[in-house]
Amino acid sequence: MATAAESSPNRPDPFEGMDIADTGFLMDVEGRSCCPSCGKSRKFFCYTCYVPVGEIVARVPRLRLPVQIDVIKHRNEIDGKSTAVHAAILAPDDVKIYTYPNIPDYREEEGVVLIFPTPTALTVASLFSGETYQMKENYGLPKGYHMGTLLRYRLNDIVDTHLPVPEVDGSTGTNFPVKRAVFIDSTWSQCRGIYKDERLSCLRTVVIQNRISQFWRHQRNSPRWFLATVEAIHQFVLEVHIAAWGLDSRYRGLDHIHLKMDQIPKERIIHPSEANPDDVKPYNGQYDNILFFFRHMYNLIHKHYDHEMLKAYKRPLY
Q: Is 199 buried (19+), middle (13-18) or exposed (0-12) by CB count in 10 A?
C-alpha cells in the first residue's frame, strides 16, 4: 500500500490506504531526458507523446481500466499542466486524449457515456442497477441560475425522486452498460461550449459522487470537490468496479477523500470469505496507480509549500 506523504505529521495523508506504487524514486531524478518519440527535453514524461522518459521508464506502473476513457481537451488548455496526461501515460491502452474540435463522432457508437452534469444525468450505480432519478425543477435552484451552478451542490440536494426500472446485469461481460466514458478537460465556461457539439450532446450523461480534491491549483469560486481530471477518471473507474464487482471490505483508500464505507450499499461490500475465486475480484486498489504521478506532484508541492497556505485547500468543502 502507499506510504505516508512528505507532509506535516498532524495532517492525514490523503492517499493512505490506496495501492499506489512507491513514487519516492521520482524525487531523486536529476536533469531532463529526451523523449524517445519527439526528441524534446522532458523531466518525467513527455506531455505531448504521452510516454515516460529517461531512467524511470522501467519503473513507471502500467495498468488496464475496466472501460475505455476518452478525454476531450480544449485547445487553450496547456498540455504540461493537464493531469489527463498522467492517465494516458499510465493506462496507454485505455486512455486517449483529443483536442477539440478534432474528436470522434460518438453518435453511432453504443455504450458511450459523457461525464457531465445535466438534468437527466445518471449516477454510475444507477447505470448498473437500472434505477434512475429525476432532478428538481431547475436543479432546485432559484430562477436565473444556470446549469453550471449544479456543480456547487451535493447530488442529494438536487435529486427529487427515484424512478425504479428493470435491473441491468453489470456483473458479467454481457450487457455491461458502459464501454467508453468521455471526459471534457477544460474550464467550466469552455466545457459548456464543447458540450453543445452534437457529437457529445447526444450522449447519455453521468455524474460521479463527490469526493475531496487534492489538486494543488486554485479554482476560484469552486468547492473542494471540483476534481482534477485524473482524479475524476479514478473516481469513475472505482465506481464502475464497485457497481459491477463490489468493494473489498479491507480496502481503506476511501477514508481520506470523504468517501466512507457507509456510503457504499452493504450488498456491494464483499468480505474475503464471500468472494468467489472465479469472479472478477472486488475493488481493492486495482486502478489506484492512475494517481501515481498525481501523488508525486502532490508530495513535491507539499515539500516546498505549507499546505495551510495554499489557496486550493482553503476552498469550502461544499
A: middle
User: Residues with Cβ < 8 Å from 179, sequence gap 6 or more?
Assistant: 67, 68, 110, 111, 112
Give start and end residues of each alpha helix (H) in the chain: 84-90, 124-129, 155-158, 188-195, 198-201, 229-245, 292-304
Question: Grid coordinates in use for 60?
Answer: 513507471
Q: Please give the model's pTM, rounded to 2 decimal places.
A: 0.82
CB burial string 136-161: b at 16+ within 10 A, e below: eebbebeeeeebeebebbebeebeee
Inter-residue contact 133 to 163 (CB < 8 Å): yes
Select from 227, 239, 231, 233 the least CA-distant residue to 182.
233
Alpha-carbon span 139 to 149, nearest angstrom: 9
**How many Cα neighbours within 13 Å face the side chain of 127?**
31
Q: Give the contacts of 1 (CB within 8 A, at least 6 positions apart).
A: 16, 17, 18, 19, 20, 285
Q: What is the per-residue pLDDT across 47-79, written as a single tens digit (0 to 9) for each?
A: 999 999 999 999 999 999 999 999 999 888 777
pLDDT, one tens digit per residue, over 238-279 is: 999 999 999 999 999 988 777 666 668 889 999 998 988 888
Q: CA torsion angle for 100, 102, 106, 108 (degrees, to 10)? A: 150
